[in-house]
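Aim 2, interim progress: modelling of the zinc ion-bound target.
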Amino acid sequence: MNIILLGPPGAGKGTQSARLVENHGMKQLSTGDMLRAAVKAGTPVGLKAKAVMDAGELVSDEIVSELIDAELEALGSDTGAIFDGYPRTEAQAGSLDEILAKHGRTLDHVIELAVDVDALVERITGRFSCAECGALYHDTANAPAKEGVCDSCGSTEFKRRPDDNEETVRTRMEEYRAKTAPILPGYEARNIVTRVDGMADIDAVTGSIEAILT
Ligand code: ADP
Ligand code: ADP
Ligand code: ZN
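Predicted structure of the complex, ligand included:
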């Protein structure tokens, strides 16, 4: 099974990917996570990407498609892939088709997480994650059960992304509208798109996605 989770920043792609990984043993392929790891490690890709990410703009198609190709190369053919935050442009969508074909995979579902624009800023400015295990939280909608302690690993260290501020979020939303939303019609023509109400609570969204996968 190979699926794309598509939606604007803050739609819930990372949150839902984590659940699919846990429930189905799939592998999450998040270009955002890969790029943040490259920035942290100071690799050539990271050095190139940092300023672009801080501005909320899109990193080059070649860079992200190469990251995806390398991850799929390393992934066992029995393990399903969840594409989270990729593809984000028509060029990337074309590359993904080629990369999947090369690895003998086909795209089963594109799941569109539909969310009100107004909710996105609130979601993103309230987002934080565990510094130890990466579990995702939100100040109000999804806080740890015990304040200051990660539900998953017990760590008390958390972090916020430098690009999760209101100004950058607006640029990221505009990039989504201008460059990413236009890839949907191509997938719709292939009859593989299902729209899910991303405004529902986190468990309900998971339920809708599970219904698509079974
Ligand atoms: P979010 O989950 O909030 O949408 P991501 O973690 O997916 O954000 O991406 C963070 C940043 O990394 C983006 O704003 C962009 O600069 C860069 N990025 C991630 N994925 C891609 C991609 N597929 N193409 C171009 N840039 C990307
Ligand atoms: P994306 O990967 O699409 O950028 P995330 O999964 O990181 O989005 O979610 C953004 C923020 O919104 C996080 O703080 C997360 O805890 C919260 N969130 C995710 N899904 C929901 C939901 N259905 N309702 C309310 N808050 C949510
Ligand atoms: Zn943790």
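Residues 166-180 form the longest helix (15 residues). The beta strands are 2-6, 27-30, 81-84, 109-114, 127-130, 136-138, 158-159, 193-197.
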